[in-house]
Amino acid sequence: MPVVNLTDRIERAIVARESLFDERHQAGLRLFNGFLEGEPQIVIDLYATTAVVHNYADPPKAGEALVEQVLEWLPTRLPWLEAILVKTRHSDDETAQNGVLRYGTNLATRIREHGVWYALDLTMNRDASLYLDTRNLRQWILANLADKTVLNTFAYTGSLGVAAVAAGAKRVVQTDRNRRFLNVAKTSHTLNGFPIHKPDFQTDDFWLHMNKFKRKGELFDCVIVDPPMFAATDHGVVDLAQNYTKVLNRVRPLMEHNGTIIAINNALFLSGQEYLELLAKICADGYVEVAEYLDIAEDFTGYPETRVGKPVTNPAPFNHSTKIAVLKTRRRGF
């Protein structure tokens, strides 16, 4: 049965986010976080003039009536929308997971955020090619990484690295196992008029890659670590709840003295306190310390007037399950 007041809840969410809309409709934001704003089967993201509706219902058919409500109502509420893409998370069909165009014709291919363009490929996979929850982190990067050397590990489509280039970083190396993802990062460079230095877009397994950097003696002022929740290769396993410290320790030898590690952990079932315990292990030898936490914007956490649910686990002292810590490092002998 559809939720009768779904459109009312989405309306409250839109009103709360009005300050995030721009006149040219170039912004990206979470339009409705159903997990915290009243309907956990539906999440809506806005990428410029395209709305991406995520159907989280399991089985998927249980959420279709809700999706139909959105498809009928949202274009009347936001008449400048040019497309609505529906991603069905629990479908057995990869095409449905990646997204089916259900309204309009023109999918957005870029957004503009803090004056920087980011390329999109909204149907590339079940994600939408740009993680909107790290908007505040991209703003922090713009303010803090001028003249720095930066390594962006698990870069995906490279938005954090692109922000570093926009900040005026001295060098930015983007690494990911998937070259197709890094090609989106190159498109972002083109959109902004940034030069593309091909050797700084590197495709390899994380574990092998970090070893190569270490053997070459390459050092960076900042290393960004934003791994997937779980990934296994022949060379190592990434598990944000079980071995995140191993991932962070692998990049520590690559740090310049007084360097910065941006440590991101988005494990939904890992509480904020449990994440702090993991970070405490990294800091135990005295060469790493937690400098600050970065909050996730309210369009992801919900607003006081729109929140009706609670997170699955308590993220405090972070404000969302995407937990971002800025770590300061120093090298032995300094």
What would your notes on this structure say?
One of its GO terms (biological process) is methylation. Keywords: Methyltransferase, S-adenosyl-L-methionine, Transferase. There is one protein chain. Helix 6 packs parallel to helix 7 (179-192). This protein folds into two domains: 6-108, RNA methyltransferase domain (HRMD) like (Transcription Regulator spoIIAA), CATH 3.30.750.80; 127-329, 3-Layer(aba) Sandwich (Rossmann fold), CATH 3.40.50.150. Strands 10-9-8-11-14-16-15 form a seven-stranded mixed sheet, with helices on both faces. Strands 1-2-3-4-5 form a five-stranded mixed sheet. It has a two-stranded antiparallel ribbon with strand order 6-7. It has eleven helices and 16 strands. It is globular. The protein has 334 residues and is of the alpha/beta class. Helices cover 31% and strands 27% of the residues.
Tell how many strands the DSSP assignment holds.
16
> Briefly, what CATH class of the largest domain?
Alpha Beta
**CATH superfamily annotation of the largest domain:** Vaccinia Virus protein VP39
Enumerate the spans where pLDDT stays under 50 for 5 or more consecutive residues: none
Q: Helix/strand/pairing class, anyone?
A: alpha/beta
Order of helices and strands: HEHEEHEHEEEHEHEHEHEEEHEHEHE
User: Could you tell me how far the N terminus lies from the C terminus, measured between alpha carbons in angstroms?
Assistant: 64 Å
**Helix content class:** 25-40%
What number is the mean pLDDT?
96
Report the sheet with the most strands, covering strand number, pairing sense and barrel closure: 7 strands, mixed
Taking all Cα atoms into account, the compactness measure Rg is 20 Å
- Strand portion, in percent? 25-35%
CATH architecture assignment name of the largest domain: 3-Layer(aba) Sandwich
Indicate the overall shape. globular
Number of domains: 2
Number of helical regions: 11
Q: Briefly note the CATH topology name of the largest domain.
A: Rossmann fold
Spatial ordering of strands, largest sheet: 10-9-8-11-14-16-15
